[in-house]
Specification:
There is one protein chain. The chain is mostly helical and 557 residues long. The protein folds into 2 domains: 407 residues, MFS general substrate transporter like domains (Growth Hormone, Chain: A, Up-down Bundle), CATH 1.20.1250.20; 58 residues, no CATH class. It contains 23 helices and 6 strands. It has a two-stranded antiparallel sheet. The chain is elongated and about 95 Å long. The N terminus and C terminus are likely disordered.
């Protein structure tokens, strides 16, 4: 009898963790599968098409000065160029007809800038924003500035929207992202000829892309079993890559930027058909003390998973909240301990370097020789194997080792690209660039996974938002780097890529291993996260880390 009383007292003292709660409502049931398909895979697919359609719309077709008179002759275009267009050295160090000058006299003694406008090669593009508005030559910088303003929008939006995600919730960010992108892209159709307003919309349309992407990823990870985190991330990354690949084929077929905007943007509204599956993260609601709202969301999950909730389920949620300590939320939580602050800085460096590399590679696709749509498609397809290898490698070899190897392989590939870039071997150059893209994307896959696992629940959206905020600021220079490559020397972007992946690879080795470890729920958990791990022990992906002992007034949720 005495032993039974002690056992009952222990059960009373025992308080559920959020993992226990997820087990009750189902952490790998029909609800999770539907959420992953709709708001991780499909949402990312559509989001990537909207995000990158502006890149296709601002493509710069091959162009040359229009010189009147050819219509009165029977000369081919090539022969007419020889008579009217001077030859210059391009960024690959090869002789080519000038894009911005023509001869001002018949004896070819002097040249002048284009006086009668430009003609555009329509082999690949029927119309782009650039060809419609003559954003070439001295106005080609408009294209670069458009991308810079878009990055500035991400810079401002990631911190603001990231903080809002921890204040107003993940679901709010997802809804706002969809509506904002659709509205801004539609407005761009009507004001593309007005450079000032186009720049304003470039800023506004980019403010929520990063946080919108991470919001659905965060919900997916917070409502599923720890063993499914790689699956959630892979689904979202596969959706993103397929969206980019599909976008290239759409533009290849229709060849008009305005039709591309409509076809790739409007389908985003269809996501609201499945709005019942877009729940607010109950883990976030618990961290904010919104117990009854968390109960409503958890009951919806349980109903779809065909799980019966115990009669005392709501009481157990309140018990968790009653013993939960008051936590610092938002940016203050990220500096509440040295370990969390250090991890935030390291994640920021890794994210900044690899995202800048990816931005350089994607902006530079137009400078590679060949079919631009096929090149864009291959750059997207280079990401797909990452979702398979990234999931397997990170699971069996841990996050740190895979991330370091990915960065180093990207550095080696970039070095080879620099060596062969100016040779007239477009297929070899493209193949090497694809290797750089693959390994860089593998690195960012691991970094995204680490960010979701290192930041505590009460600051997960804010922490990732801060990292992306700084990364977006760094990425603002990516259009200028590719502009240097297209204007001066095609090797410049890859020199920068090489240096960046070296910095990112070294920084990432100082992050803790997070594979198969419970997510830190509070800043107290994050304070000791990875404390026991040895720097040189790359292959030991198991950590002895356990959440802090539950004492009176202290408990995770």
């Amino acid at each position: 009898m005495e032993a039974e009383l002690i056992k009952n007292d222990d059960e009373k003292d025992k308080t559920d963790t959020f993992e226990d709660i997820l087990h009750i409502v189902g952490n790998n049931g029909p609800f999770q599968k539907r959420f992953i398909w709709i708001y991780n895979f499909t949402y990312a697919l559509i989001l990537s098409m909207i995000y990158y359609n502006i890149l296709m719309a601002l493509a710069i077709p091959k162009h040359w000065c229009y010189v009147p008179g050819r219509e009165n002759t029977n000369l081919t275009l090539e022969k007419w160029w020889e008579l009217t267009i001077p030859v210059e050295t391009d960024s690959y160090g090869q002789d080519a007809f000038s894009k911005c000058k023509h001869y001002s006299s018949d004896n070819k003694t002097s040249t002048t800038t284009c006086q009668n406008g430009w003609e555009y090669d329509k082999t690949w593009y029927e119309t782009t924003i650039v060809s419609d508005n003559d954003w070439v030559c001295d106005r080609e910088v408009y294209v670069t500035q458009s991308f810079v303003y878009a990055r500035l929008g991400e810079f401002a939006g990631t911190l603001i929207a990231g903080s809002l995600g921890d204040i107003l919730g993940r679901r709010f960010i997802i809804v706002f992202t969809i509506l904002s992108l659709v509205l801004n892209r539609i407005c761009m159709l009507f004001i593309s000829s007005n450079y000032g307003w186009f720049m304003v919309l470039s800023v506004l349309s980019s403010t929520t892309v990063n946080t919108g992407f991470l919001a659905s990823l965060t919900i997916g990870m917070e409502i599923t079993d720890a063993k499914l985190r790689e699956t959630v991330l892979s689904a979202q990354y596969i959706g993103w890559s397929l969206g980019v690949a599909i976008l290239s084929f759409i533009m290849w077929i229709i060849r008009r930027w305005d039709y591309l905007f409509l076809i790739s943007t409007v389908p985003a509204l269809c996501l609201f058909i499945f709005f019942r599956y877009l729940i607010e993260s109950p883990r976030w609601l618990m961290s904010r003390g919104k117990i009854h709202k968390a109960y409503v969301q958890l009951k919806r999950v349980a109903d779809i998973n065909n799980k019966e909730l115990p009669d005392n389920f709501l009481d157990r949620l309140y018990a968790m909240n009653k013993k939960r300590t008051k936590q610092k939320n938002g940016l203050l939580s990220l500096v509440s301990s040295w370990r969390l602050f250090k991890n935030t800085v390291l994640l920021t460096i890794c994210w900044s370097t690899v995202l800048l590399v990816l931005q350089i590679l994607i902006y530079n696709f137009g400078n590679l020789k060949g079919n631009p749509f096929l090149i864009f498609f291959l750059l997207a397809m280079a990401e797909l194997p990452v979702n398979i290898f990234g999931k397997l490698f990170s699971k069996y070899f841990g996050r740190r080792l895979v991330q370091f190897c990915a960065f180093m392989c990207a550095a080696i590939s970039a070095l080879v690209v620099i060596y062969y870039c100016e040779d007239d071997r477009p297929i070899l150059t493209l193949g090497l660039v694809l290797f750089v893209k693959f390994f860089s994307y593998l690195a960012v896959y691991i970094i995204d996974l680490q960010a979701m696992e290192i930041f505590p629940t009460n600051a997960r959206q804010t922490g990732t938002g801060l990292c992306l905020f700084i990364s977006s600021a760094v990425c603002c220079i990516s259009p200028y780097i590719t502009y240097l490559g297209s204007t001066y020397d095609s090797r410049y972007p890859y020199v920068v890529v090489f240096l960046l992946v070296l910095i990112g690879g070294i920084s990432g080795t100082f992050l803790p291993e997070t594979s198969d470890i419970a997510l830190p729920e509070t800043t107290e958990d994050a304070r000791v996260f990875g404390k026991d791990q040895s720097y040189w022990n790359f292959l030991n992906r198991k950590s002895k880390y356990e959440p802090p002992k539950k004492k009176y007034g202290q408990i995770t949720c």
